[in-house]
Alpha-L-rhamnosidase (Ginsengibacter hankyongi), 842 residues
Amino acid sequence: MKITFLSFSLSLFIITFSAKTQSQTTKIQVVNHSEKEDDPAKDFINPPESAKPGVLWMWMGCNISKEGITKDLEALKDEGFNRTTMFSLADITTPWAGVIGKSPTPEIISWTEPWWQLVRFAAQESKRLGMDFGMYNGAGYEASGGVWITPELSMQELCWSLDTVTGNRSLHILLKRPTVDLRGHTPYPIYDGNSDSVDIPEIEARKTYYKDVAVLALPANGIVATDSVINLTGKMLPDGTLDWDAPSGEWIIYRFGHTTSGTLIQPAQWKATGLECDKMSEEAVTFHMDHIISEIQKHLGDLIGTGFTHVHFDSYEAGTPDWTPKMREEFLKRRGYDLLAYLPTFAGRTMGNKQDSLKFKNDFQATIEDLYRDVYFKIISEKLKAANLTFLCEPYGGPWRQDEIMPLIPRVMTEFWTHGGRYSPYELESTVAALRKSGQNIIEAEAFTGDPADSKWDETPAWLKPIGDEAFCAGVNRLVLHRFVEQAFDDRYKPGATMGRWGTHFDRTQTWWKPARAMVLYWQRCQALLQWGTIAKADSGDFVAADIHGNINLKYIHRHSGNTDIYFVANVSRNAGDANCTFKVSGRQPEIWDPVTAAMRYLPDFKYENGNISIPLNFDTAQSFFIVFRKNVIINVKSNTRNFPSWKELTKLNGEWVVQFDPAWGGPAKPVIFPSLKDWTTSEDPGIKYFSGTAVYKKTVSVSADAIKNKQLLYLDLGTVKHIARVYINNEDLGVIWTAPWKVKIPAGLLRQGNNYLKIEVTNVWANRLIGDEQQPSDCEFVPGYLGGGYSLKEFPDWFLKKQPRPAKGRYCFTTWNYFTRESPLVSSGLMGPVRIMEEVN
């Protein structure tokens, strides 16, 4: 049966709230189906604190200031964020730890007193603003360690030497101490303060620290039975001398020992760079956690639980160690046999037979996984809980079984990247599945992590939207943006400090930072509903999209509580189209809630069949909706009503526009007349061609009485916008337009007969101004990054340090990482239109 309707006999209540976004102040109709507190409309209209996103707050080396901290946090609060996790990194990431010379504040070194004073100030400011604040468990973002970790407590490496001897005689031999590469297992080059170079540094402790494990003799050739291994450990003297009456035959004597792996935390200031702790040693992990907690308590004690709430552990990149001092006894306890006779498998020997050797290797790996669970994660969890601090972790990338460690972590975070402008998850599906299994509702994600191919000061809210939407459909319901950099400098230096090559560039110095509050509000509405209820059980036919027109890609997620079902359906493509969508719901009225505009309305055109409901849905580029089922089908209806309107053009706003660019960023000093709308990059005027920031378009529009007579559903369609716009008509703010459809509703009665005044503030990205600066002589020295993708500031220039006017008069931007050259292509910018007044018809 196909049911259509337009008028309703049921009682409605009206909720009015201000939504200065893609719609203006909006009257929202909400079906009054229940007075229950769990009505999702309440959270959709007023998203709770849990629905607000957070940021990973990067403190870059010693370039931190109290003024910058306050401005950062206040900007985040105003934008709609309520949580930060601070990382104390190197001056620059290139992509590894790099240094920028001549810092204005060289005394600020991570985990030293000047740094702790700033951390305390950040905690105090966070408390004042009602924001959640925490930080990483050491310097850098990888993994757990610091200058306080001694070689004995660091990650360990099994090493060995061998001597081949002929038996049937008494031997007196000095066994060689195993040698290792002094550069250790640090995975990436870093700035080495000892050599003033970028390299994998030599680790002094790999020269000096060594402990013996065992001395074993076994036949020199072939597969060796484990009972033929001769344990000579007790016969070797401390200086390595061995006296042994060797049986006849050829023998290999192995001297096994362990030393520090030399793995360093990454990427931190050189003076804050230390060894990774041994993740399988109770002594080492306890020491590390006791140290960081005692430092937190010493400096932040009265703020714990209010101004400072959590300690973070990022995705694991420290490698897999192959030894710990108690490995032999732990292996025996957990696997039931002694590993001693199997140690030669590490040197490439086959012990017992191939199956025996393979079993040992699997058992050894299982023991490592057990110890990471029972030592590393368990101690972290217990220590932080006892200190009233929340354990926040990205629990993947390391040698453990994820499903076994998840119950130890109260706040789990996953991640996704923006590779190729597409949603690129990293261990996201498995993490989300494990969280669902454990019953955790909030699923956080390090969001929109980007590299230079995709994030070079050219990202826009519209570009980001489908990437985030696909993460929502995968189960994420709280975004933690990667990344937001602490801006310690004067606000005239923009874009300012960066995380080196890494994006995405969510910073208060971003051109579109303030208007992008509309995007943050969109995320809040989405996250409010995606945290509501529970994930519905995955079922065949839960959602099916058929009869698709246009090259669109629809994803969905379904949440449920009581008699209410909520589907988030997203077109994650950058195309427009439509589809007939079937939902596994029966006997209830469909509604469509738009998280961009906050509009909520009934869908009149649908059909029930075989316990499902089919609804024709239209999607603009990267558009998404919530389809909500929460009440019985309305009976009193009118027929022939469609779910989406058609549009009739009333007038096209041709002709001249007056455009004012900001001269502070190189724009013309006086307003410019555009005979027609155009891309700024096509201009002959370099102040327009290379402009970045906000330009104000103004136009007087004459409207006839006939054009607005009896017209209640009018919209202003902006056409093509690069990249975000705020619209005013007759001095009334109609809000921000940041994504498709690029329309804004004109309130009834706002347009008047005669002249109407239109103002549109259009903001583009930083890329063009940065490229424009490259046309000028340089007044800063940059050096190439180590994987390409841009150039790192070598040192702060004297004019910057002395706060003098810069020598290059045609340069306007200052940043610590430059992606561009003078030949880099410009990014299409401005209002291209056509701008039209449209009437909604049905």
User: Anything to note?
Assistant: Residues 1-21, 23-36 have pLDDT under 50 and may be disordered.
